Every structure is written in C-alpha cells, then in structure tokens.
Amino acid sequence: MLRWYGLHADPDDLALPLPDEPSPAPGAVVLHPGADAPARRWPAERFAAVGRALARDGHRVVVVAGRGEGPLARRVAAYAGLAPDAVAGGERDLPFGRLAALVAHARCVVAGDSGVAHLASALRTPSVVLFGPVAPRLWGPPRGGPHRVLWHPSPHDDPLRPGDAHGRLPDPRLLRITAAEALAAVRALPEPPARA
Fold it and tell me: For the whole prediction, is pTM greater than 0.85?
C-alpha cells in the first residue's frame, strides 16, 4: 500500500522503537497462553510445565493475559507454582505501553500465534512461537531473528492454512508440540539484545 502511494517500504522491516516506559519485570520470561480462538490456544498445562521448569531454572516468569483471559492466566500460574502476582492483565487488557515494555525487556516470550508473538518479533525479543492451524510461513516471525517456531503439520496439510484458525478446539498441529520441546526451544534461544 505504501509503495502504491510512492513511499519507500521495506517489507522485511517490522521493527518498532523501544518503548519509553520501564518494564515492570525486566529480564522475565513472558508466557502468553491466550489467543482469540481455541484453535490457537496451546493447553494451559503445557504452558504451566514450561513456566514451572523455567522458574526452577531461576527465571522470573510472568504470565500475560488480555481482557477476559484472567482465569486462563491464573490457572497457568497456579499449575506452574507461581505467585498470583506473576499474572499481568486479565480482567482488562494491559495498557499497550506496559505490555510493550514487558516484552521489549523480557528474557524471552513464549506464545501461540498471537499479537504478543508479533510484538516480540517487532521488538526483536527472542521468542518461541507455537503454531497450529496457520503456517508460520504466513504469519510467523521473520527469518534470521532471535525466534524459534514450533509447528508440526502432517504431509497432507494445505501448506498455508491447514486448519481453521477460528476453530472451537485446539488444532491437532498445535497439540503435537510438547512441553519438553517448547522448553528445549526456550533454553536454546540466544540472549536478548542489550537495551538502552
């Protein structure tokens, strides 16, 4: 669209400037178990297993939630053995500045194919992104970034949209991702970039 108007646009430049607001939890691992449809929601118990293991490794773990995702986030935190104040948001959306600061200054982000995953990409924060009904080629983070994509399509799947992104049940491709696999991907992430 920008090119049509005669403006230069690099389709690979997805970067956002760092937020001015300080992070409420610098260096934390951010888990985002929510998504706008069950088809893209990895099971809470698996997010909790990842969170529990990372907390045992000595990481501070924060579970972020959008409006209405409070019960899910609190369940993940409880199953992970985290304190109730490890949940950010849930009754209302986190203000964007606070969410952006939390993501920008995180050790890493673990999320499904959601806005929080896209924000991690735009802020160049290392991430593990869990894909199910939509191919990472379509909505995944840019190649060459500090991101790990987990996705397990079957050989007969449509290469771009193998499932229903708005389905009422978790997508089978998403369910093939194990907690152990996600944890290993987090542990293999590079250190986040130094932030000013």
Answer: yes
CA distance 64 to 55: 16
| pLDDT (mean) for 63-78 | 96
Q: Is a pLDDT exceeding 70 seen at residue 26?
A: yes
Domain ranges of the chain: 29-187
What's the pLDDT at 10? 64
> For the sheet containing 29-32, what is the strand order?
87-89, 61-65, 29-32, 108-112, 127-130, 147-150
Which own/partner pairs from 159-166 qualify as long-range (CB within 8 Å, at least 24 positions apart)?
159/135, 160/134, 160/135, 161/133, 161/134, 161/135, 162/133, 162/134, 162/135, 163/39, 163/132, 163/133, 163/134, 164/39, 164/133, 165/37, 165/39, 165/40, 165/113, 165/133, 165/134, 166/36, 166/37, 166/39
Give the pLDDT of residue 113: 92
Domain 29-187 belongs to what topology? Rossmann fold (3.40.50)
Q: Which of 6-10, 102-106, 156-160, 176-180 has the lowest mean pLDDT?
A: 6-10
